[in-house]
Amino acid sequence: EKAVNLKKDLAEMQEWMTQAEEEYLEKDFEYKSPEELENAVEEMKRAKEDVLQKEVRVKILKDNIKMLAAKVPSSGQDLATELNIVLENYQLLCNRIRGKCHTLEEVWSCWIELLQYLDLETAWLNNLEERVQMTENLPDKLDSVNDGLESLESVLRHPADNRTQIRELGQTLIDGGILDDIISEKLEAFNARYEELSHLAVSRQIALEQQLQTMRETDHMLQVLQENLVELDRQLTSYLTDRVDAFQMPQEAQ
Questions:
Q1: pLDDT in tens, 37-62
Q2: Which of 58, 143, 166, 218 is the most buried (most CB within 10 A)?
Q3: Which residues, at least 6 apart from 209, have a Cβ–Cβ distance to it below 8 Å?
Q4: Spatial distance between the Cα atoms of 119 and 132, rounded to a whole number of angstroms
Q5: Could you tell me which residues come within 8 angstroms of residue 3 by beta carbon, excluding any fewer than 6 positions away?
Q6: What pTM, to 2 d.p., does this model score?
Q7: For the chain, which domains are there?
């Protein structure tokens, strides 16, 4: 009777594993929204816990069959053969569910990481847009234009590492058919705004550099003229002090 009960337990265990495999491993999943992906991750976590909890039952079966084999070798031998098959199938099921759970967790982590990089770069784009707008109505002063240019250039010196991460993470998920529509839309919008603002900022930078160069040249010319006027004033004052007649002075002094 004990052998019959153990044989029945082995059959039930095998049936449960077949059902678990069909439910967790053979079902096709389509992850078209973050909610679907997150639900799949949670489901696989529960599946992993459920499968691992059966380890106690498997161990009890194994111990009982060993005890029966020690007492009734003939019955125990047949059950031991069936037990080995169940043990092999159980270990395979555990490994496969662990693997799928790990894969889904990695995919979810990849999605979260992509969102974090997009948030960082969006914040940078907002800052860049603000700096460009700040340089549109600068006072016509050398210091103001110079400060505006330096402020804009400091934002433009932003490293490209985050954008590389966004491209690689997005492509990895899209290649796997994970959230491909949502990610494609996000990347398209981000790249379009990045290209637009980058070109606008660079154009503004060039314009400010040219304006600054013109102002510096004008400032230099005014400085030279001022120095010449000071020298001329000094000479004229000297002539007047010495009561020199105008017709006796050089032509330029006259």
A1: 999 999 999 999 999 888 888 888 88
A2: 166
A3: 149
A4: 20
A5: 68, 72, 75, 76, 79
A6: 0.78
A7: 1-210 (1.20.58.60)
